[in-house]
Amino acid sequence: MPSMIVLATTAVPDHLRGALSRWTIEVVPGIFVGTVSARVRDELWDATTATVGDGAAVLIHPADNEQGFALQTAGSRRREPTDFDGLTLIRMRAAKASTPAKETQREG
Q1: Phi, psi at 34, each rounded to 5°
Q2: Which residues pair with 7 in a beta bridge?
Q3: Rounded-to-integer distance, Cα 21 and Cα 4, Å
Q4: Is there a contact between 35 and 4 (Cβ–Cβ < 8 Å)?
């Protein structure tokens, strides 16, 4: 039975966006929404994880749990889904500290 999915992408290749738009609509840049079967959803997710590259993606779809949805992620994100007694919560990782530029000493 088809169900609604939401797939959010960040910095993914254009050909992936084209492939996703065959089965869903891109309501705003990088956010794809559609009603597809579980098989199509899994195929879209496999294609996404295979080509996400340096980008990131999140798939949200209905599930038989307390929250009523499941969450899958691919790529590097600061927000990490964490299971807490059967509930999916989002944990924020600390931002990477930027390395200060090397200072050059002037001879005087």
Answers
A1: -165, 170
A2: 32, 59
A3: 14
A4: yes
As given in the structure block, the two tokens for residue 40 are 């199509």
Task: Note the Cα 20 to chain centre separation in Å.
Answer: 13
Cβ atoms 60, 71 nearer than 8 A: yes
Residue (of 43, 92, 39, 83) closest to 65 by Cα position: 83
Sheet holding 3-10, edge to edge: 25-28, 31-36, 3-10, 56-62, 69-75
pLDDT tens track for 13-54: 999 999 999 999 999 999 999 999 999 999 999 999 999 989
**Residue 65: alpha-carbon gap to chain centroid:** 21
Tokens of 90: 């989002």
Cβ contact 7:20 at 8 Å: yes
Lowest mean pLDDT among 86-90, 96-100, 102-106: 102-106
Distance of CA 108 to the CA centre of its chain: 53
- Nearest to 41, CA basis, from 69, 96, 3, 97: 3
Residue type, 52: V
